[in-house]
């Protein structure tokens, strides 16, 4: 039986409960969750899109409880990949991890592109060209990679700074707008500009289009499990980080989005799509350009923290694959740096892939919207693997819970969570007539097909040498027991 890397090639446990919470919080931060999709959602469905946050949160909190149970049972680097593998076998888990790896890398490039818009505004570029935006994105990729390579301490400091930025930039600013810059009444949430129409709630109607975009807002909670082997006492700390991060993000996003909607000077123009960036224009109108730009610096911090969390998750997932000998080039990708024990090769791979994906996305007519669709659809597709596996295992009565358990209603809760994720994935991937080029409406399905074919080829090449899950479990359990004995009760 193949063996793992030696002890000095195991990851360091340097993250606490707070660190894992901050990591999940930053993954899809409130700033990214709101300002990344706000313009898309309000243009699609008008101010009434706000109610979609509650719909998505209701479904995602069920998923969060399921993932909390899974990470409590298997607190192993790679999360969705590792859980799915143990639920329904190595092949099932491999494709779960494959889908999730590409989703993380696409989302990483999407967040870098979103940050580039704010950075352009800060430096005085009102309408950046494609070349200017590309230059900013590449600087973000390089700087983020450099910070990630410095070590976990730098990562923890930046995540903490991100949370401060979120509180000031979302809650503080939202309160200021509600108190002093309201232009609209609460009635716009029910019958406001751009929100009417008999088919508003139909399957192809604007509300479900907005819900598809909002899906990108509440997907970061499970990322705490991506760093499971770097967290002290993960069976106790990670389930709480998963659930609390989602709840906190939802509160901040719902509150801040309400403030922005009520502060927009011309809702009709925004709903009709004539305002390119409703968030920036609203802030400039309310605060003046001199104050709005420093506020946008806080937004950039949120975007960069999200980029770092996404890149960290992707690199750890690639490393987990490589440790299992489940990727070409596993020997190189599974190596850790000597002192920090960081997967540097995997980090560099995410940078290269992120740059390539950004360049390819610019071949489309609306790259940011396309990338949001890709990443949103990818997250929900990846979520389906462990949910289906968990449901099957419970139906077979073979589930042995960890310290965090959902009780007697576990199977019902898992079934409802699975139905929700199936619905939201289909809602995101639904080929509505949105773009001038019809193939773009099918973009999610095209991406799934292309990555599925490539994945099948790669899996066929590596399947015979994949290490048994038991080897990984035994090594992780021994390391976790060592961590508990060192840190004390």
CATH class descriptor? Mainly Alpha
Q: Helical percent range?
A: over 70%
Examine the secondary-structure arrangement and name the CATH architecture: Up-down Bundle
CATH topology, by name, is: Amino acid/polyamine transporter I
Oligomer: single chain
Query: Distance N terminus to C terminus?
Result: 35 Å
Q: What is the molecular shape?
A: globular
From N to C, what is the helix and strand string? HHHHHHHHHHHHHHHHHHHHH
**Beta-strand content bin:** under 5%
Structural class: mainly alpha
Number of helices: 21
Task: Explain how this protein is built.
This protein has helices spanning 17-27, 30-35, 38-45, 52-73, 80-88, 90-122, 130-150, 152-180, 188-191, 206-214, 234-263, 267-271, 278-287, 289-323, 330-333, 344-361, 367-395, 410-429, 438-441, 443-462, 469-487. It is an all-alpha fold and 489 residues long. Helix 7 crosses helix 14. The longest helix has 35 residues, at 289-323. The chain starts with 16 loop residues before the first helix and ends with a helix.
